[in-house]
Amino acid sequence: MFEKSTWIKLPRSVLLGHGMIDELGAAVDDLYLSGRPLIVTSPTPNEVAGDRVRAQFDDPATAVVDEASFDAVEELIDTAEAIDPGYLVALGGGKPIDTAKMAADHLNVGFVSVPTAASHDGIVSGRSSIPEGDTRHSVAADPPLAVIADTDILVDAPWELTTAGCADIISNYTAVKDWRLARRLRNAEYSEYAGALSEMTAELLVASADSIKPGLEESAWIVGKALVSSGVAMSIAGSSRPASGAEHLFSHQLDRIAPGEALHGHQAGVGSIMTEYLHSGEDGQWTAIRDALAAIDAPTTADELGVSDEDVIEALTSAHEIRDRYTILSGGVNEEAAIEVATTTGVI
Ligand SMILES: [Zn+2]
Question: What percent of the chain has pLDDT over 90?
């Protein structure tokens, strides 16, 4: 009997471009959603675009979340249960989007993603990453029914959020290498389509690095498209593997060791320089990754991340303790080797 099967969940509509936020109402109509929308946002995005979003609905409710946490998800679920919304509209960055995604999954209602910053690929994917205590939970949920990304709004987000989104995409290079390694050594399920799409997304972004500059709406367009295709790669794979390998484990460890110091994408980017070195050695592609990050103004050193050399070594040597996937770091890297890789690559 033939036993292979797949179930790919994708957003039904993706709207990206200048002024697209004003098409949100039309995009929602097109999804045949019914009931009252609950707009989940955080203070700044609410100020920037809350009224423009609410103006497109009859009787919208709004919930403001201040942090991404399990408590915030619980609180949002309570709020939603009182309002009984037909669907959720997440407006903002990672916090409202991750929180709304998890709450929507629990409430069994659809959600629409309206990112106001191109800061990471979670704006399109079905994955949520929520910190809890000193760890971080990656939770599988359905991807948004629609993504509405207005380049006119994205371009006004703080520049470092955009470079973090770029670095998150550049880290796809090593994520795919780790995925292939896991296939070879652990017979992990691997998708050629998803791996190729993820790599191509990183390549296209790097090739456009010259057009990624502060204040240039073209930058938001390039990064927005890349985040969408990275999200599609994750949808095809049915996991975050195409966009998350050892460099993401390094980033998760830094979140624990030096919380709040650096952005997710920036940490993954620096992690990618080092894990590429571990994959292919001194003459490998790590310099290309470092140069690509530098070209778009993303950090390439501990100093630029705002963390100490010791934090980097601790994150590298402890990344294997996160056991959710096989990567180049799974066997563990000892301290001497970690110092060697971080020093040779110029990270410390
Ligand atoms: Zn990421």
Answer: 85
Exposure of 112 by Cβ count < 10 A (0-12 exposed, 13-18 middle, 19+ buried)?
A: buried
| Portion of the chain with pLDDT greater than 70, in percent | 97
Q: Where are the beta strands (DSSP E) in 66-169?
A: 87-92, 110-115, 127-132, 135-140, 146-150
d(CA 8, CA 4): 13
Alpha-carbon distances, residue 221 vs 152, 197, 217 (angstroms): 9, 18, 7
259 pLDDT more than 80: yes
| Closest by CA position to 169, among listed 283, 293, 274 | 293
CA distance 173 to 26: 36
Q: How far is the CA of 243 from the centre of ligand 1 (A)?
A: 6
Q: How far is the CA of 35 from the centre of ligand 1 (A)?
A: 33
* Residue type at 204 in one-letter notation: L
Q: Is the pTM of this model over 0.70?
A: yes
Instruction: For residue 200, count other CB atoms closer than 10 A to its CB.
Output: 14
Residues by chain with Cβ below 5 Å of ion ligand 1: 168
Ligand 1 center from residue 148 Cα (angstroms)? 20
Question: Helix (H, G, I), strand (E, B), or coil: what is residue 125?
Answer: coil
Distance 251 CA to ligand 1 centre (A): 9
Ligand 1 centroid distance, CA of 233 (Å): 13
- What contacts 64, CB < 8 A, 6 or more positions away? 41, 42, 43, 46
User: DSSP character for 296?
Assistant: T
